[in-house]
Amino acid sequence: MIDATSAFLEGVVRTATPLAFAALGETVTERSGIINIGLEGSIIAGALGAVVGAGYGGVWAGFAFGAVCGCAVAAIFALFAVTLRADQIISGTAVTLLALGGTGTLYRILYGSAGAALNTPTLDPASIPLLSRIPVVGRALFVQPSITYVLYVLVPVVMWWTYRTHAGLGLRAIGENPAAAIAAGIRAKKVQFLAVLFGGLLGGISGGTLVLAQAGTFVEGMSAGRGFIAIAIVVLGRWNPLGAALAALVFGAASALQFFFQATGSNLPYQLFLAFPYVLTLVALAATHGRTNSPAALGRQDFEQS
Amino acid sequence: MTETMAFVVDMLLHATPLVITGLAVALAFRAGVWNIGADGQFIAGATAAAWVGVSVPAGIGWLALIIALIAGVIAGAIWAAIAAWLRSRFGVLEVISTIMLNFIATYGASFLVRGPLQEPTHVYPQTSGIVSGAHIPILLGGTRLHWGFVIAVALAVAAWWVMKYSATGFRVRASGVNPFAARSAGLIDVSRVTAFAFVTSGAIAGMAGAIEVSGVTFALYENISPGYGYTAIAVALLAGLNPLGVIGTGILFGALETAAGAMQRNIGIPSTTASVIEAIVILAVIAIAQLRTNRVTTSA
Fold first, then answer.
1. Backbone phi, then psi, for A288, in 5-degree steps?
2. Average pLDDT of every residue of chain B
3. Which of A84, A110, A209, A271 would staple B111 via disulfide (CB 3.0–4.6 Å)?
C-alpha cells in the first residue's frame, strides 16, 4: 500500500506538470485581459514540435522547438484577438481547430499515417540528492523528469515578476483597467501580444512535456482538452501563478487516480477515470463561483472605460 | 449510379448533421451563448436514439422512429441544460463547460458501447442494430440518402422564420446583440432567454445525433461524431449566423468533408486537412468582419 501511495503521488506530480506549465502561461495571458481559448492549439503544436525537434537534436532541442511552435500558434491567435480586436472566444476556437487539424496533417505527412513505430527520446526521472529522501513526498517531488524542476524555478520567478516589477504592474493594470493603463502610457496592445506569446511558449513546453517526459511519441489530439482544463485551473488558482501550480496538482491527482486504481485492481470502468478530470473541472468552476478575482477587463474586445 | 451522383449523395449525407448542428450553433451564438458543445449534445442525442432503437419492441413500427427522435432531442437538451445551469447559477464560462461536456459525452458513449449497451456477442464496441421501425425512410431509391436532409432544410426554414418574425426570435436576437440594453428595456428577462436559447440549441444538436443514428449508422459506435460540433461553428459563422445561409454552408462543408475523404483514399491527402480549411474559413470570416467594423469606427 505504501508503494501504491508513493507511486500515486509521483503520478500526481508527473501528470500535473504539463497542466501547470500551460496554466502558468495562461495566468499571465489572462492577467493582461486576454483569454486565450487557443491554448489547446499551442499544446498540441508544442507536442508535435517536440517530436520534430527531438528527432534532430535530442530532448532539449525538442522542448525548444516545441516552445517555438506553441508560440507560433499563439501568435496567430494574438494577430486576431489583440491586433484586430476580434472576438477572443471565436479566434481561440478557430486557432485550436487549426492546430489540431494542422498537426494531424503534418504528422501524417512527416511520419506516414502509420506513425506508430515513432519513438522519441524521453527524459528519465532525475533524483535530487537529500531532498528526494524526505518522507512521503520526497520521491514524488524530487524524483521527476528535470522539466518539472524547471517549473519549480519558473513559478516563483513569474510570481515575482507579476507582483514585484514595474512591467508586471503594467500587465495587471491592462487587465484591470485598460483605459487607465493606456492613459498612464502603457502600450496595451504590445503588452497583451507579448502576454499571449508567453502563454503560447509555456503551452508549447506543456505539449513538449506530454511527449518528452510522458508518452515518448506523438498521437493526434493527444492534448485531449488540457488547454481547456488549464483555463479552468487558472480560475481555480485565482489568477495567481502559485495558485495555478497548486490547482494543477488537484487535476494531476484526478488523472493519476486511474493509475492508482489500476494498481489496486479495481473493477470500475476505466472511462470513469478518463472522464473524471473533465467532471472535476466543472465542479471546480462551479465551486469557485463568487469567490474569484478575475481581471476586471478579461475577455473585453475594446479598451474603452466601462 | 454515376460518380457525380454518388458524390452528391455523399455530400448531402455529410451535410445533414452539419446543417442541423450548424443551426444549433447559429441559434446559440445569436443569443450570445458560446455553445462549443454541439458535439457532446450530438453524442447525447445519438446515444438516446440508439438506446430507444435497440430497446423498443419491433412491433410498434414507425412509432419507434418518433420515440427515438424525441429521445435524441431531450438528451441533447439535457446535455446543454447542464452547461446552461452552470452558467446561470454559478457563472461558469460555457466555452469551458461545453468542451468538458464533450469529453464526458465521448467517454460516456464509449462506456455504454463497451458495457451495458454492447451488442450481444461482446466483440465490437457498438450497440446492436436499431429496430427497422426506427430507420428514417430513404429519400432517393437506390441510394443511402434519407429524409433527414429534408428535415434539416425544413428545420432551417423554421428557425429562420422564428428568428426573423416571432417575438421569441426578437428576444433572442436582442439578448445577443446587447444584453444590457435588452435588460434595461425591461421587457426581456435576458438570463431566461439565453438559457432557453442554450437548451434549444442543445435540443437541435441532439436531434442531429438522433437523425445520424436513425438515418445512417443504425447503431451507436464509439466516435459517432467525427467532430460535427466543431465543424458546425465554421458552418454557422460562414453563414453569418443566418439559418437559411446555414443550408448553403452546411452543404459546402459536406462537400468539403466528402472530398477530403476521397482525397485521402485516392491521393493520400490527410482528411485532417478539412479542419484546417474550416479553421481558415472561421478566421477569414472574423478578419473580414473585424476589418469592416474597424473601418466604420475609424471613419465615424
1. -85, 5
2. 90
3. A271
Report the phi/psi class of residue A118: left, alpha or beta, with left for phi > 0 and alpha for psi in -120 to 50: beta
Give B138→chain A minimum CA distance, Å: 33
Q: List the single residue in A with minimal CA-CA distance to B93.
A: A285
Give the total number of structural domains in chain B.
1
The amino acid sitting at B39 is D
CA A173 from centre of chain: 23
Return d(Cα A52, Cα A58) in angstroms, integer: 10
Four-point Cα dihedral A76, A78, A83, A84, nearest 10: 70
Which three cell numbers, joined as nine digits, stand for A71? 508560440
Asked if B100 reaches chain A (Cβ–Cβ under 8 Å), the answer is: yes
Name the β-bridge partners of A143. A127
ipTM field:
0.89
Domain-located, residue A306:
no
What domain range includes position A267? 2-287
Domain region containing B46: 3-299
CATH number of the structural domain spanning residue A172: 1.10.3470
Best mutation target among B33, B85, B88, B100 (most A Cβ atoms within 10 Å) is: B100
| CB contact B282 to A (< 8 Å) | yes
**pLDDT tens, B133-149?**
999 999 988 889 999 99
- Is A105–B273 a contact, with Cβ atoms under 8 angstroms apart? yes
Stretch among A193-197, A300-304, B118-122 having the lowest mean pLDDT:
A300-304
> What digits encode the pLDDT tens for the residues A176-218?
988 989 998 889 999 999 999 999 999 999 999 999 998 888 9
For chain A, say whether B89 makes contact (Cβ under 8 Å): yes
- Which residues in chain B are contacts of A232 at CB distance < 8 A? 96, 100
Closest CA to A25 of A211, A196, A236: A196
Smallest Cα–Cα separation from A226: which of A10, A30, A39, A98?
A: A39
